[in-house]
Design goal:
The protein has helices spanning 26-42, 133-146, 157-186; strands spanning 46-48, 58-61, 68-69, 72-73, 79-90, 93-99, 102-111, 114-120, 126-132. The protein is an alpha+beta fold. The strands form three sheets. A five-stranded antiparallel beta sheet has the order 1-2-5-8-9. Strands 3-4 form a two-stranded antiparallel ribbon. Strands 6-7 form a two-stranded antiparallel sheet. A hairpin with a 5-residue loop joins β8 and β9. Residues 190-195 have low confidence and may be disordered. Bound molecules: zinc ion.
Amino acid sequence: MAILTVHRFPDPVLKQRAKPVTTFDKTLKKLSDDMLETMYLEGGIGLAAVQVADLRRLVVMDLKNGEEKNGKPAPHEPRVLVNPEILQAKGEIVTEEGCLSVTDFRAEVKRAERVEVAYQTLTGESKREWMEEIGAVCIQHEIDHLNGKLFIDHLPLLKREMVKKRLIKMQRADQEALRDDVRIAKRGEPQRKAKA
Ligand SMILES: [Zn+2]
């Protein structure tokens, strides 16, 4: 397995619309294994292939990631959903969302509370199931990724523009700090961390 690079806003790949999976081969299984490993390392509960710059409609999830059971990390409950789509949605729920592609920012987003999802397994078997609450929120967030949409795109227009500007500014500052580190390292001085 390998750790993949999670692309961050404003990387243009995050605006791409992913394409349906038609070939259920070894590379699809490898992608899902690598995505799960990356998601566990980054501490997320969901990851869409678009976020690792692979434009296949594939999502991995583990709603238990980061939870504890009897003082120990909860056992993993990995899920892989290929070509997921929402058949019907019911109710409303507002939760605070974050995203591995949008660092250091969280916001409340309103979504459907229950959704019926159709998807395929890694071997191409068709399934349907209802997902609720955090599961429903997570799959809606991930399907958005497959359609080139981020959770910040759900914010009201003015707030959205403000947040995007701030995130771009923060990312530039990070990149400059990183360049400074490289320069310092090249001069043979001890390297300092990019972020305080
Ligand atoms: Zn996300």
